[in-house]
């Protein structure tokens, strides 16, 4: 009995260490999403800035598009922005959901970095982002012609992500 009492802390430590070791092997950008292959949530957002229309679920039907959730105060959003601008120049339709931002800050951000977005909805209170299952910014979604979410990328997009995942998926859903 005494021996079991001495072994209990060791066994408990091994179990906890094993649990954390498994967690460390998982890629945080592959967080599961209940929204994959489901229609985008019903929403209608006002314009984030003057001169660029707002965004609604209806805007996402009939074309393959990326939906990028971003904010001017988000440092990682600045890192991925040139890649989004490049995709837009190549003809990829990109819609923006701006999260919890002031219109002046969004305008400055886009004036400084360029505007890759066809439409930008202002999600001032973050409720639409919650409906999409957003954990934080940036997040990027591939939406098919039927308005179904086909892919979700959590965090900064890299050139590797675009070449290995985004472009092939855009081609696949465009067929």
TrEMBL record:
One of its GO terms (cellular component) is outer membrane-bounded periplasmic space. GO terms for biological process: cytochrome complex assembly. Belongs to the thioredoxin family. DsbE subfamily. InterPro entries: Periplasmic_diS_OxRdtase_DsbE (IPR004799), Redoxin (IPR013740), Thioredoxin-like_sf (IPR036249), Thioredoxin_CS (IPR017937), Thioredoxin_domain (IPR013766), Thioredoxin_ResA/DsbE_sf (IPR050553). This is Cytochrome c biogenesis protein. PANTHER family: THIOL:DISULFIDE INTERCHANGE PROTEIN DSBE. PROSITE patterns: THIOREDOXIN_1, THIOREDOXIN_2. SUPFAM superfamilies: Thioredoxin-like. Keywords: Cytochrome c-type biogenesis, Disulfide bond, Redox-active center. One of its GO terms (molecular function) is disulfide oxidoreductase activity. Residues 34-171 form the Thioredoxin domain. It comes from Oceanibaculum indicum P24.
């Amino acid at each position: 009995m005494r021996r079991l009492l001495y072994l209990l802390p060791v066994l408990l430590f091994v179990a906890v260490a094993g649990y954390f070791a498994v967690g460390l092997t998982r890629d945080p950008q592959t967080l599961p999403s209940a929204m994959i292959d489901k229609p985008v949530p019903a929403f209608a957002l006002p314009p984030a800035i003057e001169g660029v229309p707002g965004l609604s679920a209806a805007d996402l039907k009939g074309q393959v598009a990326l939906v990028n959730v971003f904010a001017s105060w988000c440092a990682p959003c600045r890192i991925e922005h040139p890649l989004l601008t490049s995709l837009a120049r190549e003809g990829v339709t990109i819609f923006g959901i701006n999260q919890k931002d002031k219109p002046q800050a969004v305008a400055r951000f886009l004036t400084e970095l360029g505007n890759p977005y066809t439409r930008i909805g202002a999600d001032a209170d973050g409720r639409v982002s919650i409906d999409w299952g957003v954990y934080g910014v940036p997040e990027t979604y591939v939406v098919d012609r039927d308005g179904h979410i086909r892919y979700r990328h959590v965090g900064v997009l890299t050139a590797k992500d675009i070449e290995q995942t985004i472009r092939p998926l855009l081609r696949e859903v465009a067929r």
